[in-house]
Amino acid sequence: MERICLGKTASKAVDDYLEYRRIVGEDDGGRLFSSEEYEEYKRTVFPQRLHNRLYVSFGVPGGIDCKLIGPETPCFCTHRYKQHQTDFEEVPLERPIALPCRVQGCRCLAFQYVHRNGTQPVRCRCKHSAYDHSETTEHLCGKCSSCTGFRSPYSCGCGQPSSAHQTLVETKAEREAQGRPVGRDVPYAAMGGLTGFSSLADGYLRLDDSGAGVPSLSVLSSQQPGAFQEHVFEKALGPAAASGPAAASGPAAASGPAAASGPAAASGSAAASRPTEESSVTSVTRTLSDLSTREEEDMAYFERRYQERMKADKMAFKQKASSSRGRPSTKPTTFLSSKKPTKQPTKSFTKLEKRTNS
């Protein structure tokens, strides 16, 4: 494998290109701007983005922002948010603000986010994917005629159905009036509703004002220390620590060192402390080996329940077998007669007998 080493100038060139791509986005049409065009572009676009930034989110109106839209967030038309119109010289007065797609041939008139299950969008109630529906406003299905528009039975993490969510496009003043975070003014393209690293998480997981929020002090203070299970080492060291210092602080321990003095007493106390330390280590080791972890306790619980269920099934089978033995047979009784039925002569034999008699 070839190893590529970049010098300081090459690393700076890579950083400059990444900065260029964050600022320009898809506005260059795939052809890099020259230095003069790049500077002119920044002089024209920077004031618009700093004053007319649009914050795009996805959620229930009046609720939390379940999803904050960023440059790489896909639309219903499968194109990214950065491929839609995001810069305006003047903010439109009509609401909702439409952000049409700029990809040639796409009929998407407004950016619209759709819930995703992993990496794929959720399915409609007609069992077809969002890719099978039209990107126009009606979102009609192209594989069936009974679908009246994309409508998914999926439920969001906030507890509301997918049909109750909307893609919201708001200005900075509208966000501040609702008490939502707006972050810092940045010149980057298609930032949408991103204001920090926490914006990448779902709404019910975010602890900022746009998400679930910080839990109240009453919730935090209601958690008692005893409500949580102690660590295995805390369980093991608890009895040992309680028995060790407590035993050493008793009346006998206080009278022993106080009565003895001199080097002999010091050597005797040192010799007496060694067995105590060894015994404490042995007791801790034994306690740790006797303790069972939470997984082992769970496995023992489920194994016990399984054995109880198997025992109950065996008892039910035995009771059913014993009850079926005492019941009379339900099969119909057939009585065989001693007289065998006579065989009727066939039609051909009867005709032959008539010819012989004649």
| Largest pleated sheet | 3 strands, antiparallel
SSE pattern, N- to C-terminal: HHEEEEEHHHHHHH
Strand order of the largest sheet: 2-1-5
Put simply, the count of helices is 9
Helical residue percent? 25-40%
Distance between the termini: 113 Å
Family: Belongs to the FAM221 family.
InterPro entries: Fam221a/b
Protein name: Protein FAM221A
Region (Disordered): 241-294, 307-358
Describe this structure in words.
This is Protein FAM221A. It holds the Pfam family FAM221. Belongs to the FAM221 family. Residues 241-294, 307-358 are annotated as: Disordered. Residues 320-336 have a biased composition (Polar residues). The structure is a single chain. This protein has a domain at 13-115 and 154-213. The radius of gyration is 41 Å and the shape is elongated. The chain is 40% helix and 5% strand. By secondary structure, the protein is mainly alpha-helical. The chain has nine helices and five strands, in the order ααβββββααααααα. The strands form two sheets. A three-stranded antiparallel sheet has the order 2-1-5. It has a two-stranded antiparallel sheet with strand order 3-4. A hairpin with a 2-residue loop joins strand 3 and strand 4. It has helices spanning 8-24, 35-51, 172-177, 217-221, 232-248, 251-259, 263-290, 294-326, 347-357; strands spanning 55-59, 65-68, 116-117, 120-121, 166-170. The model is unreliable at 226-233, 239-261, 263-267 and 269-274 (pLDDT under 50). Helix 5 packs antiparallel against helix 7 (263-290).
